[in-house]
TrEMBL record:
<keyword id="KW-0408">Iron</keyword>
<dbReference type="InterPro" id="IPR002397">
    <property type="entry name" value="Cyt_P450_B"/>
</dbReference>
<keyword id="KW-0560">Oxidoreductase</keyword>
<dbReference type="Pfam" id="PF00067">
    <property type="entry name" value="p450"/>
</dbReference>
<keyword id="KW-0503">Monooxygenase</keyword>
<protein>
    <submittedName>
        <fullName>Cytochrome P450</fullName>
    </submittedName>
</protein>
<comment type="similarity">
    <text>Belongs to the cytochrome P450 family.</text>
</comment>
<dbReference type="InterPro" id="IPR036396">
    <property type="entry name" value="Cyt_P450_sf"/>
</dbReference>
<dbReference type="InterPro" id="IPR017972">
    <property type="entry name" value="Cyt_P450_CS"/>
</dbReference>
<keyword id="KW-0479">Metal-binding</keyword>
<dbReference type="InterPro" id="IPR001128">
    <property type="entry name" value="Cyt_P450"/>
</dbReference>
<keyword id="KW-0349">Heme</keyword>
Length: 400
């Protein structure tokens, strides 16, 4: 594996969580295991409380005594998301979510993923006789970006540019981010904002047939502010490929690494959802969520004062042996009650795109399984993992 060169190995964190250690960024799970065993509620030198147990992470994620609002003023370029559902508490969160939830009902998701099916079909058609394809751009990014662009009713021809812009924004989320990372994020969001504005200005007047139309109409009715509508459109357009794309490319990598897994997926449709769920558990795109308690709370026998920062390690919770037997083993035969991972979060701030993301992953893997008998890696992937999020730049594959 090759790490992208921008992650500078500054000595941040501590012996339990060496945030910027390159090996930790590649594979934090041995450190997570030690933390779960030795230090249930871990207080970092900067005052952050870190939780690693499933029960504790789930409890904080679903608690009504937690807020996501504090900290946005220090979020730099990322504070554009303060005006969306990911930056607001109830009841404002509920009001904003009402504007988008109705566009992602199971019935509509089935309609949206027909675009995914069309686009992955075109991507597979373009593969030459040698079977070579890039798992990131060709399979993960383009089909999912086009799908979300059509949900929004926006042009769909900038998949690679959007992916590059969002890739520029992610390194500043790392604990060891540098001033250059902040500048890169600012440039990425600036390009994305300008691109959104150009597309919205070019739209002709039309009925509310798409999500972007509905959000702009909500401004006219007073249900959203112009800033909230623009930020929400940017959120869905910019992130429409990101986490689901990671799940797809990570799943493809797991197909290449785990003997017999792709054959099981191909030959037995009844296990496909379980295989995808185990992929999601084993390698979530985002490893942490942050919360701020509005009152003093007790977690694992430790009192955490109101106003503190709590970092919940989703990746660690997904490997908690008290919930998942043999947690480091890929086992898609786990019963449903023993496979409820937290990769999409929990509580009111669970991932708004979970239903469509799972559907897109399944449609893409089904299309590959229908046409090909094997997936193999043809080279090392280029990764851009950090302590907070996982990212691929390339995954060279051969489908045959």
């Amino acid at each position: 594996m090759t790490l992208a060169p921008d992650l500078i190995p500054v000595d941040l964190g501590d012996e339990y969580l060496p945030w910027t250690d390159p090996q930790f960024c590649l594979d934090p799970y041995p450190w997570y295991a030690r933390l779960r065993e030795e230090n249930r509620v871990h207080l970092m030198a900067d005052g952050t409380y870190v939780l690693s147990h499933y029960e504790d992470v789930l409890g904080v994620a679903t608690s009504h005594d937690m807020s996501v609002v504090p900290g946005w003023d220090e979020a730099g370029p990322w504070k554009v998301n303060r005006d969306t559902i990911i930056g607001q508490d109830v009841p404002e969160h509920t009001r904003l979510k009402r504007q988008t939830n109705k566009w992602f009902t199971p019935k509509l998701v089935r309609q949206w993923v027909e675009t995914t099916r069309e686009q992955i079909g075109l991507a597979l058609d373009r593969i030459g006789d040698d079977g070579l394809v890039d798992g990131w751009i060709d399979i993960a990014v383009r089909p999912t970006h086009v799908t979300m662009a059509r949900v929004l009713g926006l042009p769909e021809d900038a998949a690679e540019d959007v992916a590059k812009a969002m890739a520029e924004t992610m390194p500043m989320l790392a604990a060891g981010h540098t001033p250059r990372d902040v500048d890169r994020a600012a440039a990425g969001f600036a390009w994305l904002g300008e691109h959104i504005d150009e597309m919205l200005e070019a739209r002709s007047a039309q009925p509310q047939r798409h999500l972007a139309d509905a959000l702009l109409a909500a401004v006219d009715t007073g249900d959203m502010t112009p800033t909230q509508a623009r930020a929400t459109i940017m959120l869905f357009y910019g992130l429409g490929h990101l986490d689901v794309g990671y799940l797809i490319v990570s799943g493809l990598q797991q197909f290449t690494r785990i003997p017999g897994l792709f054959q099981a997926y191909k030959n037995d449709p009844s296990v496909r959802k379980a295989i995808i769920n185990e992929m999601v558990r084993m390698d979530p795109p985002e490893l942490s969520i942050f919360r701020t308690p509005t009152v003093d709370v007790e977690v694992g026998g430790v009192t955490i004062p109101a106003g503190s920062t709590i970092r919940c390690l989703l990746g660690s919770a997904n490997r908690d042996a008290s919930v998942f037997e043999h947690p480091d083993e890929f086992d898609y035969t786990r019963p449903p009650q023993a496979s409820m991972n937290l990769s999409f979060g929990a509580g009111v701030h669970h991932c708004a795109g979970q239903v469509i993301s799972r559907a897109e992953v399944e449609v893409i893997f089904d299309a590959i399984a229908d046409r090909f008998d094997s997936i193999e890696a043809t080279g090392e992937p280029v990764l851009d993992h950090n302590d907070f999020a996982r990212a691929f730049h390339t995954l060279p594959l051969r489908l045959s």
